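Researcher: We're teaching a course module on how sequence relates to structure. For the next exercise, students receive a sequence and then see the predicted structure as C-alpha cells, so they can try to spot secondary structure elements on their own. Here is the exercise chain.
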Amino acid sequence: MIFSKPRQTNALPTILFALLFTTALSAPAVSENYLDKATVAEAKALIDSSLKSNIGFDIVESLTTEVGPRLAGSEAEARAREWGVAMFKKLGFTNVRIEPFEVNFWQRNIETAEIIAPFPQKLVITALGGSVATAAGGVTGSVVRFATLQDLRDAPLTGLEGKIVFVDEFMTRTQDGSGYGVAVQKRSGAANEAGKRGAIAALIRSVGTDHHRFPHTGQITYADNVNKVPTAALSAPDADQLARSVALGDVQLRLTLDVESPGKRWSGNVIGEIAGETDEIVLMGGHLDSWDLGTGAVDDGAGIGITVGAGKMILELKKKPKRTIRVVMFGAEEIGLVGAKAYAEKHAAEVAKHVVGAESDFGAGKIWQFDTRFAEQHLGKADEMHRVLAPLGIARGSNTANGGPDIGALRQLGMPVVVLKQNGWDYFDLHHTPDDTLDKIAPADVAQNVAAYAAFIWMSANIDGDFRAN
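Model: And here is the predicted structure for the students to work with:
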C-alpha cells in the first residue's frame, strides 16, 4: 500500500472539532423526565424475557388449531369467545368477561363461476361478505371489463343492463399497506355502481398483492336505494385469464352464489385485565373473528397472540402497574368493526380514563416503526419510550397514528393512540384467503412484537402524566 504525503491544513477547525467531540463524549445522556429508572429497567427486562418466549406464537397456535376459522356470528366465533375467556383465566388475567352484542349473520355455501363461451372453463372465485345470492341456477351474461373502479364510475348509467361487470383494478404492494385504502374501494364500489346501471352481477380482481390462485374475500356494503347485485372476487390468475378472454371478444359467464343471511346472531368482545393502582386504563388488543376461508392466523390470530402474550409477560413481572391494563379481543371486526363500535358505545362515559390504546391487526411481521398520536406537548414522552424500543429495530415515526381499525372509534372520542407498525410487505398476499394459516407465521417475529407491546404498555401504564392536551 502506498501512502501519500499528508497535505497542510488549517489546525483551528481540527482543534474545535476535537473539543466538541470530547465535550459530546463527556456530556450526560438525555435525562428521562417522565419515566423513572425502575420503569425503564422493567421495560427492558420485559423485552429480554419476551424475546426468549414463545407465548405469543403458542396462543396463535392454540386459537387456530382449537377453533380455526371464526366468521362473525357463527358457532365457531362463539367457541372462540369461550376459548378467549379460558385463555385469559389460564394466564392469570382478572375481571375476565364477555360484552355481547348482535350482528347480522351471513354465510357462504356454494360459489362457482365459469366461462360458457367462447372458451369454456371454470374460474376460481369467492363471494364477498354480505353479498346477495344469485338465483338457484345462477346468472349468465356478457362480461364488460373496466380497468379501474373510476372507469366504471365514469361509465353511462345505461348500456350495462343484463351484463356482468368486471372491475380489474390492481393493488399496489407497500410495506405499510397503504395501497389497501385505494384498492379496497372496489369491493363495495363495484357492487353499487353495477347495481346503479342495471347489471346482473359484479366481479372484481381480488383486493390482494399475490399471484396465487387464492381469491380474497372481504365485506361489502350496499348503498341505500341501489339494486343489490351478487358480487364476488376472482383470484389474480383468474382475473388475468378473464381479462385476456374479454380482449378476444364477447365472453359469456355463469356465476352462482349460494349465500344466506338468516338474521341476527350473537357476537361479543372478550376482555381481560391486569388490575392497576388506579382505574385509568391502558388498552391493547386485536380482533378475535376471522373470515372463513383460512384459519385466521395472520388476520388476526397474530394480533390476539401478540397482545395477550404481551399481557402475560407483564403478569410475570409480578408487580402491579399504576394504571389498569386492559386487553380486548374484539368481535365481528371483519364485517364492519361491529365490536369496536359496541365497545366505544358501552365505554363512552369512561373514555377520559383511557390513557392510550393500540391494536395489533396487520399480521405477524416485525415491528419497524413507532407512530403516535399524542398532544404535541407530550411528544417528549414518546421519544423516551422510543429509546427503550429502539434496540428492537424500531424507528421513531410520525405523530399521525390511527391506532388500528378497532381503536378508531375510541380515537375519535379523544383517546390518544399508538401504532407499532409492522412490516406488511406480504400481508396482502395472505389477507382474507385460504392461505391465511399458521405456517405463514415466524415465532421469532411474533416474539419481537410481544417484546415491543409489553415494553410500551408497561411504560404507558406507569409513566407520569397522560398524552392528551392539558
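Model: If you want an answer key for the exercise: The chain has 14 helices and 14 strands. Residues 443-462 form the longest helix (20 residues).
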